[in-house]
Amino acid sequence: MFTLLQIEWLKVKKYKPVWILLIFLIILFPLATMTTAGIFQDIFKTKLGMPDMVTARIFSPFDFNYVFYTSAYINNGLNIAWGMLLILMIGNEFQNKTMRQNVIDGQKRSDIVTSKLLLVLLFSMVSAILVIFSGIVTGLIYSSTKFQFDMIMLKVLGISFIAAIMQMLFALVFAFTIKRPAFSVILYLAYTVLIENAIVHLLFRAALKLEHGRLFLTQAVDELTVSPLDLLSGEKDAVTPATFWITCGVYATAILVFLYKYINRTQLK
Amino acid sequence: MSQEMVLEVAHLHKHFGKVHALKDVSLQIPKGSVFGILGPNGSGKTTMLGIVTDMQKSDSGTYSWFGKGSDHRFRKRVGSLIETPNFYSYLNAYDNLKITSLISGRGNNEEIKSVLTRLDLIDKGHIKFGNFSLGMKQRLAVAAAIMGNPDVLILDEPTNGLDPEGIHFMRKILIDLAQEGKTIILASHLLEEVQKVCTHVSILQFGDLLAQGTVEELLGDSYKIVLEAENIQTIETALKNKFAAIKRVDSSNKQLMLYLEEKVLPQDLNSFCFENKVVLSRLEVLGAKLEDKFLEITKKN
Fold first, then answer.
1. Which of A8, A196, B132, B297 is deepest in the core (most CB within 10 A)?
2. Same domain as B229, residue B209
3. B240 shares a domain with B209
């Protein structure tokens, strides 16, 4: 396992897109949360004529430590960027035939998947830390309460970590089965941004009046995090329903089983 | 005592759609041999090498490395260059070899420097692979293959796309490795090269294994004799009738090229010609060429 990590680190440390994306996300995560907080406050003050939430100490989803839930809710969507990065990396390995060379050199086929799972864990950890970081930055500006260490922060860290893993696992399916980086990225984006939403909102909710669409993969991942609207409506201790944890667990297991079986059968041309 | 085999392939079949790329191919590669795999493009050479390196899966059949199995651990003992050099374009030569050494468990930092030196790449170690010329890429791939002294080397068209200087360099490396007594599996179009270095040869065509054995066994006693005389054409049929060992005759102006299945004494030929009033101006025995044998076998099929 340590050797796999060493190999992946050698590949990642000089792969510029990783560092460009990391810088981009370090800026974008807090920026997205702060922009949302700014708009939220503006609506309260100017549109609804309410006093400044921070000075008047009115509860907002940007108060410590609820700001972490809000940050997670806003930023989890950005995990798509990590997914795209993984697809690019894996697609390039297929296209440049380095993956097959690794197998020729003696790598176990299953180790190909395991090594990418290590990257998923690493990127998910970074993503979860960025959620907390952006929560802290936003809270320092927009919170009416002081930061106090409590379980919410750890809970959000865990949820964000899991949500990022799920999003990236899904990306791995596209990367390994389609193999061509550009085409995989387009399909991945099309599915996560357009197709799934269209199925869930237009078909299930609007046409069939069903809520089962929430069990689709990215929808279920979104359901793991507490929405700011739930916080505003008083569900401050909202707990993710077990249904969505189970759904995510089933998806994760299915994806892992599929990937390991697939890599052992596929032709590495 | 039977000879130790490094690779045994038994009844391999492989289809690509409707194309039957390998048809019941079985072969054994003895330890210490330089084993040439010959065949025209699309004959199944790379497919077979792809299967024994787990790059591709066969439809049926088995293979075993070192008489032990097809596990990934045995591939670690094999250095391979198959088709093209495949490395990470954004990494330098040194880092690419580091990855190979971590995967294969062969080689360390010293070994990396040593193979870079041997392949004349030591001053290019910090250049990105993407900026390498084709010749340098090919040399790096050979460096990766020989790093850490593997038990077996697979070299699939190692001179592909190289300029004359590169071909000369690669030929020298190949001869050096063969002289070191390493088991080498060499797939190549350059039959002269193969004849120079190989101890064993197999010939594939359209997925069929047409011939296999030592170079001597394959060439047998076949050789060629050139006869030249003013009126040489007059005895072409008589020669064929007299010497059953003649399997083919190419005639041109004042020359006959005799392809022989078994030895015919030059003096017998000379006497026969003289008896038939043909005075030879040239009688030359030419050594058997793998190229001729290859063409003969592949044309026959």
1. B132
2. no
3. no
| Lowest mean pLDDT, pick from A104-113, A144-153, A232-241 | A232-241
Strands B255-260 and B223-228: antiparallel
Half-sphere exposure of A33 (CA within 13 A, CB side): 34
Could you tell me the pTM of the whole model? 0.82
Section A133-153 average pLDDT: 87
Judgement on whether residues B62 and B49 belong to the same structural domain of the protein: yes
Per-residue pLDDT, B62: 94
Check CB contact under 8 Å for A107 and B95.
no
Of the ranges A4-8, A61-65, A213-217, the best mean pLDDT one: A4-8
Look at B99 and A265 and tell me if their CB atoms are within 8 Å.
no
The count of C-alpha atoms lying within 13 angstroms of the C-alpha of B269, restricted to the half-sphere facing its C-beta, is: 28
Residues in A closer than 8 angstroms to B84, CB to CB, are: 97
Q: Check which CATH number belongs to the domain holding B273 and give it.
A: 3.30.70.2070
Q: What is the pLDDT of residue B24?
A: 93
Sort out which chain A residues have CB atoms less than 8 A from B90's CB and list them: 14-16
Residue numbers in chain B where pLDDT is lower than 50? none
Q: Do A104 and B55 lie within an 8 Å CB cutoff? A: yes
Distance, in Å, from the CA atom of B88 to the CA atom of A13, rounded to the nearest integer, reads: 12
Q: Are A81 and A25 in contact (CB under 8 A)?
A: yes
Q: Which residues of A touch B75 (CB under 8 A)?
A: 103-106
Spatial CB neighbours of A27, under 8 Å, sequence gap ≥ 6: none
Please tell me whether residues B121 and B208 are part of one structural domain: yes
Q: Does B241 touch chain A (CB under 8 A)?
A: no
Q: Does position A55 have pLDDT exceeding 90, yes or no?
A: no
Burial class (CB in 10 A: 0-12, 13-18, 19+), B255: middle
Q: Do B49 and B72 fall within a single domain?
A: yes
Q: Which domain holds residue B111?
A: 5-219
Q: How far is A82 from chain B (nearest CA, A)?
A: 20
Q: Check residues A163 and A240 and name the one with the higher pLDDT.
A: A163
Residue B100 belongs to a domain with what CATH number?
3.40.50.300
Quote the number of domains for chain B: 2
Taking CB atoms and an 8 Å cutoff, what residues of chain A touch B86?
96-98, 100-101
More confident residue, A175 or A215: A175
Residue B161 and residue B246 in one domain? no
